[in-house]
Design brief:
Layout: E1 3-7, H1 16-26, E2 36-42, H2 49-53, E3 55-58, E4 61-64, E5 70-73, E6 81-86, H3 87-90, H4 102-124, H5 132-171
Parallel strand pairs: 1-2, 2-6
Antiparallel strand pairs: 3-4, 5-6
Helix pairs in contact: 1-4, 4-5
Length: 172
């Protein structure tokens, strides 16, 4: 089972975050979490000096970790593999009222979560000889489709029914 840890400094995360991460983990097949033991939720201010200054390569460019919405840390020196999600970066553009809607917070978190899970799967299960960010994006797209296909169909039907009823009310 994947453990979820929260560590924030001078930041109050939206209430939906923990529920959304639990839902994403619950709806992802357990075989994809082999050797992944931790999802760490934090904010930019809680990063230590090393992480604030550290850089990584992304699409042949150096990128500072404190500009990223999340990252994957592979298993190393008896430390478990883990995913770090920077919550304030992920929800930066969203108003607080929108995050009260579970579907919106799930979709917003899923982009980063599934991308980082794609890095984990690339390292542990399906090594491909392509740009690692492209491989992670491919995994992310796959899981977004699998996870939200049923939800989007239900939302589409609900909004269609609502639109039809509003048109009928307007005609009367």
């Amino acid at each position: 089972m994947v453990e979820i840890q929260e560590n924030y400094k001078d930041y109050e995360a939206p209430r939906c975050v923990l529920k959304s991460v639990k839902r994403l983990i619950r709806h992802t097949p357990t075989r994809y979490f082999s050797d992944l033991q931790l999802v760490h939720l934090t904010n930019t201010d809680a990063l230590n000096r090393k992480n604030r200054r550290q850089k990584t390569k992304s699409r042949k460019r150096k990128v500072a970790l404190n500009n990223c919405a999340g990252w994957y840390i592979e298993k190393w020196n008896n430390q478990p593999a883990r995913i770090e999600l920077i919550i304030d970066k992920i929800f930066y553009d969203y108003p607080s009222w929108a995050l009260r809607i579970g579907f919106i917070s799930d979709v917003t978190l899923s982009r980063t979560f599934f991308h980082e899970l794609g890095h984990h799967l690339h390292k542990t299960r399906a090594l491909e000889h392509q740009e690692r960010e492209d491989v992670a994006d491919k995994w992310r797209t796959r899981y977004d489709k699998e996870t939200f296909a049923a939800c989007s169909l239900l939302c589409f039907r609900a909004t269609s029914a609502l639109a039809i009823s509003q048109v009928e009310l307007a005609q009367n």
